[in-house]
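fold-stage: in
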Amino acid sequence: MALSARQITGSNFAYQHLPFETFLDDMAGLGRQKLELWGVAPHLHIPRLSNADARRIRGSVAARGLQTHCLTPEQVMYPVNVASPVTWLRTESIAMFRRAAELCAELGAQLLLVTPGRGYENEPVRAAWRRSVDAIGDIAGYAATLGVTCVLEPLQRVESNLVNDYRTLATMTDEIGAANLGAVLDTVAMAVAGETVDDAFDALGARIRHVHLIDGRPAGHLAWGDGELPLAAYLAALDRRQYDGHLTFELFGDGSYARDPRSAVERCLAAAEAAAPPRP
C-alpha cells in the first residue's frame, strides 16, 4: 500500500472571501476527487442551509466530477460548544450538529467532523467531560440513523480544556462507545501536544478515519513549507501505518492565504506529491 494523490481532498478552508463556485472550479482544476467542506458563512452556514440548498450544492459538486466526503461545521470561532455549562448554548450546539448530520446525508458526505467543546476554566473537568460525552453520543447516535460517521478531533489547549491529545481522545471515544464514531489526526494539534503519528495510531488504530495535514511552528495551520513540522515524515509514517483514508490541507494561517487560496493549495499539493512514498 502507498499513499496516493487521490487521498488528498479539496477544501474551502481559506476560500471564504471568494464565491463557492470559484472554490469548486479550482478543486476540479487541481484534480481533486473528494472534498472536505467547511461549514462557514457565506458558503455553507449550517443554521441557514436548507435541504434544497444542500441538494443544489451536491449537484454543483457532481457537475464538476467531485464528491463531498466530509462536512466540518465551524465550531471553534462560532458560538458552538457541546460541553458548555450554559443550557441554551449546549442545546443549540447539539441541534446544530444534528442538523449538520442531516445535511451530510443530503450532500452525500460520509463524515461529519465534531470537536469536544470546553467547560469553564474554573469548574471541575469531569463535569464538562460528562456534558461532552453525552452530547457527542447524542450526535453520533442521530448521525447513525442517517448513515453518517462522526469523526472527533482533538484541539489545542487554547481551544479546549477537554481533549488535547490522542490518549485522551481514545478515552473519550471508548466512553461514548458509538460504532460510527472515529477520530481525526490533526498534525498541528498532534505536534502541539508533543505527539507523533505512531502515538496517535497506538492510541486509536483503525479508528483514525480522517487526517488534517498542515504545517505549523508548531501551531499556525500553515501551508506546507511555511512552518517547521516534518510533513514528509508524517506522510511516511501514515503510509507505514497503512492509513487508507483521506487527508485535507486545513489552511488558516494569519488570514493571508484567503487572498490567493489556490496558490497555497498548489504549493501543498506539489510538496505532497514530491514527498509521497514511492509506489511499488
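fold-stage: in (second)
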Amino acid sequence: MKHTPAFAAQNGMRYRRQELIKEIEGATGNQLICCVGGTSTAIRRDDVLFLSDLLHNIDRGQPIDLLLHTPGGDMDAAEKLVSMISLAASTAAFRIIVPDFAKSAGTLMALGSNSIVMSDSSELGPIDPQVVTEERNGTVHLTAIQAYLDAFADFSAALKKDPQDPAAQAMVEKFDPARVHEYNAAIKRARSLAEKLLAARMFPAGSGNVTAIAGQLMNTKQYLSHGQMIGYVEAQTLGLRVDYMPPEDPLWQAYWQLYCYQRLEAEERFKIFESHYASLREDDAV
C-alpha cells in the first residue's frame, strides 16, 4: 500500500533523513544512530526509552556510530546511555560523531567511545559538574561546583593565615558545610566516571593516561568557563583519540547535512532520536 500524497508530504523530511542515514551506513559499514537536541534540552534518564528503540534492531556485535549533539545534562544518565551502546557494540567499534557540539555530559559520553569523529565545526567541553541552585529570593541559576569549592578553599586559606580577617570570616560563614561535602563528592564522581569511560574503550589495559586526561578536562584554571570550546586540535593535544575529517570530505558533508536536517527539526526544546528504521521526537524543554 502506498502512502497518500498528504502523508508523504507531511513526513517527507523524515524519509529524507532516514534515506541519508542508509546512505551513510552503506559508506561506513557501521550502524548509525542519532541523538540531536535543541539548546533547551538535556541528557536525562528518560532518554533510555528512546535510545533502547534505536538499538532494538541492531544485532549485538555490530559496529555502531552515534551522531551526538547536546549541551549536556545528567552525568549518571550519560553513563547509562553510553553503557547501553557499548554493550550493544560488544567487541566491535563504537564511535561518537560530533558535528557541532557535545558539551559537559555529552563530552563524558564521547569519552566512552573507541574514538571521536570531529571536523572544524566540532567541539567538546570541560566536564566539571554544574548544579541548578535556587537562591533565597527564588532566582534559579547554574552553579559551577569547582568554582564554589575553589572560593571556599581560598577564603578558608585566608582565614587560616589570619583568623581575625573580617572579610574571610564573613565569606566562610556563607558556605554551607553540607553543600561543600556534596560538591566534593560530585567532583570525585565526575573524575572517576571520566577515568572509567576512558579506560573502557579508548584506552583499555592502561594504554593511555586516563587520570591525566580526566584531570585536564576538569581543570577550571585552564578552562575558565564551562562552555569553553575544545576543538579537534585541542582534543588531540589532550590525548583523546580523534578521527579528524576535513569539511570537504563527502562523508563529513553527509553527516553535516543530516545534522542540519535534524537540528532544524529539533528546534530549541525537542530531541530527535533517529536511525534508518526509527524516528522519535521528544519534548524535552528544561
